[in-house]
Amino acid sequence: MPATLTADSLRICLAAFLRSLGVGMTGVLLAIYLSSVGWNVRTVGMLVTVGLSGVAVATLLTSFLADHAGRRRTLVVLGLLTALGALALATTRRLELLLFAAFFGMINGLGRDRGPAYALEQALLPETTTPERRTYLLAWYGLILDVGLAIGSLLAGVPALLRGHWGWPQQSAYSVAWFISAALALGAAALSATLSSRVEIAAPRLDGPRRLAPNITAESKRRIAKLAALTGMDSLGGGFLTSALLSYWFFRRFGIGEEWLGPLFFGARVANAASHLVAAWLARRIGLVNTMVFTHIPSSVFLLAAALAPNFVWATALFLAREALVEMDVPTRQSYILAVVRPEERAFASGITTLTRNVAYALAPAGAGLAMSGVALASPLILGAGTKIAYDLLLYFSFRRIRPPEELK
Asked: pLDDT tens digits, residue range 381-399?
């Protein structure tokens, strides 16, 4: 870990780690669990969309209100709502109740932690370091998240363990997993409550709706708008590739259960985690934008190949190769967005770009479910990879000449 990490930064990273454990487990189990209680793939896709819609709305509210309501309080409330969503999965199978809980509890079938707490945390962390160390700090934050997602993927094997070794009924075994997820969210909320007052800022008086947003320069507005649109496009592709739907694809295509899917996604998240520090190292040598684009396009090519793989072994190898590259744009993109705006604009820029990502994430899963059932099982993989390649090309030609301060020295 960076030697300059403060006590508040450590608490933020630990809270993010606990939250990501639950997200990793949910991403693997959600679609398989809902299938086990009789839901078809279209309904599963609808619930994932509703959950990600809740994430998007919460991100919007966080972007505008966190500095006024209090950053600590906002993080605590988000953790409590997440815990309630997990408890709903443990205690009811009624469609209307689960859809309600998915929205307000921000049930995340994406398999990646890209919600409102993530947006707020990544805006706070750069304030604790220098511009030269910013990318490395965000890389460590991303690494911690992905380690949590990896271990959470292994926790997805808990239901199979309870059934196979202790003879638990299937639904009771799944309920234990959801109770674990709720406890992890409560732990993250408790850690957020211990943050010091130094994480807060003096919020301006609310004289009207226009005062909710900070004073953004015209140049920053243009950059934020363009980056938000492009990252939204990237996330539209990612919405076709949620862990819930990828798990379902492996499950249906190769007959693989959670006892294999857990280790598979553990390996994927370990590959993600290792790539963050490599991305930070590479960015210092070839630049943030080049690192984003030149690692992301090959990852999409590997995914296209995985969609056409003849067996589970080839599909696994290509999927893991994709995962070793696909997250290298995450710390570099975060660092770039926060570098090309003023410090007082960072929370807003982070929130808005995360918001557009979450809106795009929310739109795709329902369509992916329809495509899987009506076109081809692998269609989300092909659509997702193609959309991401188009995003990479647009990003490169739009921003290759706009450099962050540390690259101008």
From this structure: 999 999 999 999 999 999 9
Tokens of 365: 């899963």
Q: How many whole angstroms separate alpha carbon 125 and alpha carbon 293?
A: 24
Closest CA to 8 of 149, 141, 162: 141
pTM for the model: 0.77
Token duo for residue 313: 């072994």
CATH of the domain at 92: 1.20.1250.20
Total domain count, the chain: 1
Q: What is the DSSP letter of 37?
A: T
How far apart, in Å, are the Cα atoms of 358 and each of 226, 228, 277, 381?
A: 16, 11, 25, 19
Phi (first) and psi of residue 342, to 5 degrees: -70, 155
Higher-pLDDT residue of 371 and 77 is 77
Which residue range forms the structural domain that includes residue 173?
A: 7-197+217-407
Q: How far apart are the C-alpha atoms of 247 and 316, rounded to whole Å?
A: 12
d(CA 272, CA 323): 6
- Nearest in space to 138 (alpha carbons), one of 409, 408, 404, 360: 404
- pLDDT, position 164: 86
